[in-house]
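Researcher: I'd like a structural prediction for the single chain below. Treat it as a standalone chain; there are no partners to consider.
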Amino acid sequence: MPKEFSRSSRVAEQIQRELAELIQLELKDPRVGLITLTGVDLTADYAHAKIYYTTLADAAAREGVDAGLRRASGFLRRELGRRIRIHTLPELHFVYDASVERGDRLSRLIDEAVQADHKKQD
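Model: Treating it as a single chain, here is the predicted structure.
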């Protein structure tokens, strides 16, 4: 079983690298802009891949990014098939990863609490 896990994780990492390059260099949709792929989850049979991404765009622009990625998923899957040789090429599902946004918000809250604490001590 560990061998399967390492193969699956290697395939997921390769998919993430190839998709990041394809999105940056080949995708012409202006809605997508600058995004960062944060992870890939593959089903055991490689039929589906959840591609997690983040962007600095606001919520309204994020809808455009999501629509652009959904529209480009067929193109990206086809190009991925030319770069990666695996038996089953997964269907791509793009999912916004809010963890970076949550982390940034928590970091700001901590900074505010520390500042408030310093003001109380002065």
